[in-house]
Specification:
Radius of gyration: 20 Å
Helix content: 40-55%
Number of domains: 1
Number of helices: 2
Number of strands: 5
Shape: elongated
Length: about 140
Amino acid sequence: MKIVLYIIWALFVAGAVFSIVRVMRKAKRQEELTAGWPRVQATVTGSVAGWTSGAGGSSRNRRFYPTYQFTDPHGTLFAGESEVSFASQPVPGSLVEVAYNPAAPNQSFQISSQSKAVLGCLIPFFAVFSVALFFFIGAFPVG
């Protein structure tokens, strides 16, 4: 019976590691892509509502992805939709910082340090949680 618990634990750890590595690579790729791009203040025009996945037995939560507009140095207006989600609906008219591709200004990303902070908290949490689960399985009385 314990072997089954250890297999489930190993699958959980592998899934967590895979997910964290995937998110880190995506963030690094986006950071490298936008490193030389100009940054501007964009005006929030609204938002698109979505839901969290509810994975891991958690309840699904409503999230909001801001839509925004910005102008390039030539005065041309461009619009975009953020990949950064918010728990509350963003206020139209508020400002967000975006980086845009000067060769194709329709390609833009909202700049957010929030993802780095979340990753910085998630990695130690999953490490401690995984070690605690490992020891709990060892101490779990199996009849």
